[in-house]
Amino acid sequence: METGGATLPRLLNAAAFGGFIAVVGFVAGYEATVQLRSFIGPMIRVQGIAVGSRASFEAMNRALAVNGLKPVIDSTFPLAEAAAAFRHMQAGAHFGKIAITL
């Protein structure tokens, strides 16, 4: 997950072959200089994600609380078994959230 422009080159270097980078903000600025081979060689996907405003987030949380809505938890994994949690997600057999606990 990338939170801002200037750090994108470092994240591209750290991503695994076939990796995915979600860009969710601009904490480190609006610009980044990257070499195109950083995307093409390791086949990395980069996608921007809109998260909305703080006011919308707070309104959503109030609506969840008022209506008693809670997320559906499919399964939980301790942090030591994070790899198993990702394999479970990759299998696509889950319904709801997969949580990793500390």
Read across the widest sheet, the strand sequence of neighbours is 1-2
In terms of structural class, how would the helical and strand content be classed? alpha/beta
**Computed CA radius of gyration, to the nearest angstrom:** 17 Å
- Helix % is 25-40%
Major pleated sheet: 2 strands, parallel
Number of strands: 4
Distance between the termini: 20 Å
Shape designation: flat
* Helical run tally: 4
User: Can you identify the CATH superfamily of the largest domain?
Assistant: NAD(P)-binding Rossmann-like Domain
- Portion in beta strands: 15-25%
| CATH fold descriptor of the largest domain | Rossmann fold
Poorly predicted runs are none
The number of domains is 2
CATH architecture of the largest domain: 3-Layer(aba) Sandwich
The SSE string, one letter per element, is HEHEHEHE
Q: Which class of the largest domain in CATH terms?
A: Alpha Beta
Q: Look at the structure and give the mean pLDDT.
A: 88
